């Protein structure tokens, strides 16, 4: 157990800084160039899916079970067998699913764009309202925030607890303010904490009483299948079913994709939602396209065969990712435990670990790491408008680097965390 | 040469109708079920591209020339080699090209949606304007009209000549009315006539002087490669280059895809436009997606190798389609020439033939054909709001049925044309 930095004298801090700076110079001299900024799968993960390149060839029959030739136009909702597979993946009825193109982010963007121009189920288009607000549980996913910011939607941060968004606040705000039209959620293995919403949280979501009839929960279940362990897994209550039971069937848009199951950029995305909402989606979709890529849908179905095939496949991803997450957690514990200068999550799945530094240190840590050749996600990215008021969140993305690089990068990282904290504490003593 | 219907006496018309009705009953009894409603490739055409299923397999290196792993996230503009191939296809500089997903219609929809919410290059978003108008050369493509109608854009029909839209009218309208923000064009082998814009027309387009600074030409070059003959081909002046020469580099958005080259729904789409416009597209795109399907882009590049490969491939499409177009034209000539009850185009490429019936007959003809088991595109579909004021346009889509079915369908069609005209003329004599 190390001595808490807070208990160090000025002299001790000075010695610590001098020692850390020497180490920092050494690692800087190595000229590393490691990127931990995004949640990208690594090459071995991508290699797991190379078999998908073989399931269809020129001798394949590209006809669906219902007789549709996947090579030609049509099937706006997606092919039946893909709706069934993604239905199993998302725990939804295939008839409640639309299969899209390669990106669920794109579907979320298009959904905001649609309600911006045409409104939700006959309600006023959001572009005609004086103000539109979204609740943004924080820390959260930067690409969600970038969509709402692009449309000029005012983002209201809502603190995350270990059980999900603080539901006392969510319930109050949506009940009181009809300008609040939505909330971004990553309910399972959340980005960036890797926590999953508790049963209580999901139930309270399904029972929300928003003032706005066109309020929708944007439920981005990006990591539904992305466990790190075989048995030690989070379980999430299925939101559509829960909303239906609660008498609020239209409250939620649920998004998912196979981006981190097969190939990012060449997977298939989907929404699951109520029949009313689906009708609303289709009024838009039928003008936007004749149909999405059915050959790729068929490729996914033939590759996985069924949900068990997908589960087995995800086990292989877990075998690659588990040691990386554990390595990060071990290095954080080894180098920082007891120092009292940061805390971190130890998720059971997903793509991220959240590190919380001492207030006011996150930007400094990320900048120091960068100068030593380690690129982290920008500090602030976990907050709307890139504005982390405490300047403490740092998202760690352990998936992409190989284990050796990850070890090096994390050593640089903990070094920067310690250096930044020691300097801050010394500055405070000087004042 | 048949006797013109217009010269027939009431008795002759009655005899003709009786004869035609007997024939109609016979074909109705055959219980045909033929669909000529959409411009879908036929199975043999799809079979031409089955080789694309073999160019990538699990042993393939899915790395681009610039080192990008096509399996992972990234490359918002598309991969370099795909931009080069589609640059050659579209006759544009690869740097002026963005590769999208599977549908150029989707790109057009998204483009309207983007300017609706965010405006063109800093101009007022169209959603905030009291009125937005589009020029719609008629007859034209129904899916274009459906996009503008969905956004509540007022569509103003502009007559097509044999050289393209009537440019006297286009020039005058765009100069005088700043609410006119765009025009839909299918400049080569147009849908539904199969005509190509003359050099003069393209030059006048490039020299338009719109009152609206955010006026754009929506140049849907869907059939740029879709010739029916080897040497007897239309040539279209490249619009981006012409706009640049005319000092109006930002005037045009150009769209294309490989939908009718490889597989509809599993091809790749693209835009070509000026650097200013491209910057505008990217401000939107970078929030909408992390990137489109690069594996499919690579698949297309490896399949065609280069533009010559694509040209050779299109020759095979032509060999399948040419006899179909010629069969339609022969039956129309055989059954209708001299009757004075309709005219039709004989295009050198594209997917359609336009038939013009006597005024007031198109809906009736299509309904009669339907009752005899032949589904044509709805009459009216070639006009905004489905409203063909003369009720005379019928789009013929010869590509999908096999030659035998096509012959049967066209016989039904000409029968319905004659029946409808004879009845109309007889009614007029009775009045």
CATH architecture of the largest domain in chain A: 3-Layer(aba) Sandwich
Strand content of chain A: 5-15%
Principal-axis shape of chain A: globular
Report the average pLDDT across residues of chain A.
97
Look up the CATH topology of the largest domain in chain A: Aspartate Aminotransferase, domain 2
Q: Please identify which CATH superfamily of the largest domain in chain A we are dealing with.
A: Type I PLP-dependent aspartate aminotransferase-like (Major domain)
Report the structural category of chain A: alpha/beta
Using only CA atoms, what is the Rg of chain A?
Answer: 23 Å
How many helices of chain A? 13
CATH class of the largest domain in chain A: Alpha Beta
Q: How many structural domains can be distinguished in the coordinates of chain A?
A: 2
Count of beta strands of chain A: 13
Order of strands across the main sheet of chain A: 2-9-8-7-6-3-4-5
Low-confidence stretches of chain A: none
């Amino acid at each position: 157990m190390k001595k808490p930095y807070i208990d160090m004298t000025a002299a001790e801090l000075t010695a610590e800084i001098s020692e850390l700076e020497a180490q920092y110079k050494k690692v800087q001299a190595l000229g590393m160039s490691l990127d931990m900024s995004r949640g990208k799968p690594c090459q071995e993960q991508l290699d797991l899916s190379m078999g998908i390149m073989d399931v269809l060839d020129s001798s394949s029959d590209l006809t669906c079970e219902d007789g549709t030739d996947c090579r030609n136009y049509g099937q706006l909702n997606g092919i039946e067998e893909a709706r069934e597979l993604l239905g199993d993946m998302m725990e939804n009825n295939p008839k409640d699913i639309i299969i899209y193109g390669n990106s669920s982010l794109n579907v979320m963007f298009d959904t905001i764009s649609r309600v911006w121009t045409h409104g939700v189920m006959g309600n006023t288009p959001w572009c005609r309202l004086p103000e539109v607000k979204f609740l943004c549980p924080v820390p959260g996913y930067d690409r969600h925030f970038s969509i709402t910011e692009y449309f000029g939607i005012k983002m209201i941060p809502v603190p995350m607890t270990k059980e999900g968004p603080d539901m006392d606040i969510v319930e109050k705000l949506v009940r009181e303010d009809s300008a609040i039209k939505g909330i971004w959620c990553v309910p399972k293995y959340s980005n960036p904490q890797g926590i999953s919403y508790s049963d209580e949280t999901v139930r309270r979501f399904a029972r929300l009483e928003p003032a706005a009839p066109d309020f929708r929960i944007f439920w981005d279940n990006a990591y539904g299948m992305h466990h790190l362990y075989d048995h030690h897994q989070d379980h999430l209550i299925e939101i559509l079913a829960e909303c239906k039971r609660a008498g609020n069937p239209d409250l939620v848009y649920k998004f998912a994709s196979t981006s981190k199951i097969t190939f990012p950029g060449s997977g298939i995305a989907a929404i699951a939602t109520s029949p009313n909402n689906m009708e609303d989606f289709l009024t838009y979709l039928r003008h936007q396209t004749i149909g999405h890529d059915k050959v790729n849908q068929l490729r996914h179905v033939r590759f996985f065969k069924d949900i068990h095939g997908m589960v087995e496949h995800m086990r292989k991803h877990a075998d690659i990712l588990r040691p990386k997450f554990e390595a990060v957690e071990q290095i954080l514990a080894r180098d920082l435990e007891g120092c009292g200068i940061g805390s971190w999550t130890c998720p059971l799945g997903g793509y991220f670990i959240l590190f919380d530094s001492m207030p006011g240190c996150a930007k400094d840590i990320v900048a120091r790491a960068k100068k030593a050749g380690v690129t982290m996600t920008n500090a602030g990215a976990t907050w709307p408008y890139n504005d982390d008021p405490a300047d403490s969140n740092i998202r760690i993305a352990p998936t992409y680097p190989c284990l050796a690089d990850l070890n090096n990068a994390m050593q640089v990282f903990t070094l920067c965390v310690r250096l930044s904290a020691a300097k801050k504490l010394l500055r405070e003593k000087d004042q």
